[in-house]
């Protein structure tokens, strides 16, 4: 079940040069262009529909998608962020499968443009999101599922010290087939992820 209440836009969440903010209508064209430029970089990791009816990201306007994203806030089912670096939109981070009741959990998915890869942006964005979910929304658990071949994304959860929970076989339809995913989890009460990242020297200030 969703959280059980509408989610208030938290405003910008910032650490160093990295900011998360809820996606807005004016982000539609910058995101479309970014997705189009990053086709080769992102295609291997993108969700697809088993029927083969998937629309290639960046090929159409993002405005309907953004409206659908923002409806998640009202429904209490997710939080759609864009990732900014020095004020420039460079990726997305989506909080989904947001559950209240006895679960109090959510999942995080993210991508960052190839032209800024390797600068510590993704770990910082994920740390900001986890701290927000535990602090502002009071969740108990946050989960990230990653294809075992996605070495760059595995480095993100390694830097953050998330706990491995094992492999989920044929878990999500990605790039045209059902793919295995490794599951990693963080729990409330384990301290600030942003501070943890800063202590480890992996944040981008």
Automatic annotation (TrEMBL):
InterPro entries with a match to the protein in the record: Acyl_CoA_acyltransferase, GNAT_dom, N-acetyltransferase
Keywords: Acyltransferase, Transferase
Keyword Acyltransferase attached: yes
SUPFAM superfamilies found in the cross-reference section: Acyl-CoA N-acyltransferases (Nat)
N-acetyltransferase domain segment(s): 18-190
Top-level lineage group: Bacteria
Transmembrane annotation, as ranges: none
The family this protein is said to belong to: Belongs to the acetyltransferase family. RimJ subfamily.
PANTHER family: [RIBOSOMAL PROTEIN US5]-ALANINE N-ACETYLTRANSFERASE, GNAT FAMILY, PUTATIVE (AFU_ORTHOLOGUE AFUA_3G00765)-RELATED-RELATED
UniProt name for this protein: N-acetyltransferase
Species name: Leucobacter chromiireducens subsp. solipictus
């Amino acid at each position: 079940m969703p959280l059980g209440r509408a989610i208030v836009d938290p405003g910008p969440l910032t650490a160093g040069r990295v900011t998360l903010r809820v996606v807005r209508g004016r982000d539609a064209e910058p995101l479309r262009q970014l997705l189009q430029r990053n086709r080769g970089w992102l295609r291997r990791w993108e969700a697809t529909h088993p029927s083969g009816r998937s629309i290639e990201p960046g090929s159409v306007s993002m405005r309907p998608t953004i409206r659908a994203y923002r409806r998640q806030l009202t429904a209490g089912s997710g939080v759609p962020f864009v990732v900014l670096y020095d004020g420039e939109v460079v990726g997305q981070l989506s909080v989904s499968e947001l559950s209240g009741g006895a679960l109090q959990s959510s999942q995080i998915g993210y991508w960052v443009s190839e032209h800024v890869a390797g600068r510590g942006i993704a770990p910082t964005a994920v740390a900001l999101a986890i701290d927000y979910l535990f602090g502002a929304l009071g969740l108990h658990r946050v989960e990230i599922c990653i294809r075992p071949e996605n070495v760059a994304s595995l480095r993100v959860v390694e830097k953050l010290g998330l706990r491995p929970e094992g492999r989920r076989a044929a878990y999500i339809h990605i790039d045209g087939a059902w793919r295995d995913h490794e599951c990693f989890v963080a729990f409330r009460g384990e301290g600030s992820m942003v501070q943890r990242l800063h202590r480890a020297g992996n944040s981008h200030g």
